[in-house]
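$ ./design --mode recover --in tokens.txt
reading tokens...
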């Protein structure tokens, strides 16, 4: 496969999100690919809405992007030591789409946070939430960028050699899983 499709999913909607910066670095480390970023700006999951109107178009689009991707990278901050509402909501919606879009999808999860654990606790929760979706979560060293405000320069580039090394290893493994 010469040019795989890589879908990036950011658990923060914030424009200046450190997790989005980390995903850009992940993209670069992954190498040549058709890359697109998921839009998690979705309505809140509501069973009544689903019953009345069906799955929203934005969710169908997202689910199709997951299905079509060769590989997925998720980077999310933790909020209060847990998964962000934005990411949980998206995963809940995706789980309502026929055909299990995440099933066997090679996926790497990472996090960046202001705190000193880099979102490790929240990342465990993301991994846990991916379990019923049957994503093929690749094993490897956890990448948890701590004190994220100090680890990216003004252009959004990750400057810490250790994190860059872990990221390269994780992305090499992801690429190997899809090529
Ligand atoms: C609601 C909320 C909860 C947060 N909880 C945590 C936390 O549990 N651990 C932590 O390290 N930082 C926490 N933070 C700070 C985030 O790490 C920081 O805002 C970070 O920049 C968010 O990621 P982003 O840059 O990708 O948006 C929290 C921030 C918000 C807004």
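writing sequence...
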């Amino acid at each position: 496969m010469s040019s795989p499709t890589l879908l990036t999913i950011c658990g923060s909607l914030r424009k200046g999100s450190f997790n989005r910066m980390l995903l850009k670095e992940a993209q670069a480390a992954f190498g040549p690919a058709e890359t697109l970023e998921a839009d998690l700006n979705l309505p809140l999951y509501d069973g009544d809405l689903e019953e009345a109107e069906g799955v929203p178009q934005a969710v169908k689009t997202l689910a199709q992007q997951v299905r079509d991707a060769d590989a997925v990278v998720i980077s999310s901050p933790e909020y209060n030591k847990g998964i962000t509402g934005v990411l949980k909501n998206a995963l809940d919606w995706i789980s309502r789409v026929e055909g299990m879009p995440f099933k066997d999808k090679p996926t790497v999860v990472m996090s960046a946070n202001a705190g000193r654990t880099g979102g490790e606790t929240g990342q465990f929760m993301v991994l846990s939430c991916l379990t019923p979706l049957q994503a093929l979560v690749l094993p490897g060293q956890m990448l948890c960028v701590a004190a994220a405000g100090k680890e990216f320069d003004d252009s959004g580039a990750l400057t810490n050699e250790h994190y860059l090394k872990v990221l390269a290893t994780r992305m090499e493994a992801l690429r190997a899983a899809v090529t």
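exit 0
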